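Hi Y.,

Following your request, here is the sequence exactly as I used it, all 190 residues.
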Amino acid sequence: MGGSASLLPREALGEYQELTFLSKQEILLAYKRFSELLPKEERENACSARVPKSQILTLPELRANPFQHRICRVFSTSADGDDSMSFEDFLDMLSVFSDSATSDVKSHYAFRIFDFDDDGTLDRKDLEKLVNCLTGQGEESRLSNAEMEQLIQNILEESDIDKDGTINLSEFQHVVSRSPDFASSFKIIL
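Below is the corresponding structure, written out as tokens. Let me know if you'd prefer a different format.
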């Protein structure tokens, strides 16, 4: 562990602790895991490197997540739109998915992950993609058109407070606040 800690400047470690919901040990572990995703020759400069999305998705914690591509999209700050991640992007992701993150922070990012078209609302198309991610894409698990329509209608009746046919962030957070297990289930632990 001493090797990875020596490559992460002490002042950066303190700053990361202040800006995230992660402990010193969690940040050092995140740095180690992030560095391991880089080619050996780039590991010394892990703080300034970007890891391609394809490498991020090799993490066991993301590999089985049905929202893995959306998670990379939401947390990546890549100007190229390639969903690659910097170490700070990686830390942000782990911070939001940590046990210490607040329900408000978790629900905000869950909303962004579920907003597939990034328009600030969950409409019928977003809800259909969300359901398909959760139920699987296979023929045997896919809902019929009638079942999908009924489920989306039920979701909107329960969540769409202003009855505009979409769910906004406030409405989403209201629904999530009534789900006691949301915060504990919305997590990634390295």
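Confidence is low (pLDDT under 50) at residues 1-5.

Thanks again,
Q.
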